[in-house]
Amino acid sequence: MNGDLLTVALLAGAANWAFRVLPTRARTDRLAPGGWLERFLAATGPAAIATLFVAAILPALSTDLRALAPLVIGIAAVLGTYLARPSVVLATLAGALGHGLAVWALGPVLP
Fold first, then answer.
1. pTM of the prediction?
2. What pLDDT is attached to residue 94?
3. Are 31 and 38 in contact, with CB atoms under 8 Å apart?
4. Contact 81, 91 (CB under 8 A)
5. Residues 3-24: what's their mean pLDDT?
6. What is the average per-residue pLDDT within 79-98?
7. What gap in Å lies between CA 5 and CA 71, rounded to an integer?
8. Helix runs in 1-111, H state only
9. Where are the domains of the chain?
10. 45, 58 contact by CB (below 8 A)
């Protein structure tokens, strides 16, 4: 394994761990309502989700429209379900189902 890759993976894992564990260990009940730390902690969740989303789709991006179909269908299912009923659980399940059905219908498109 490449040493640079291992270093980046360890740093990303440590940062992920810190963002998940430190807010639970902090005394957040003593934070000022609407203060900068509360806003920062509230923003880390969506920021982490966006980062993971970008990292997950980058390898799947292609100029082949057939290869992009499962990705587009999955994203559309997530957004449509979440807008219809704001539930992260239902949106995640709908996205997985949409992506899975698209892969099943089209067959494997990536080498």
1. 0.54
2. 94
3. yes
4. yes
5. 83
6. 92
7. 26
8. 3-25, 36-57, 65-84, 88-106
9. 1-44, 61-111
10. no
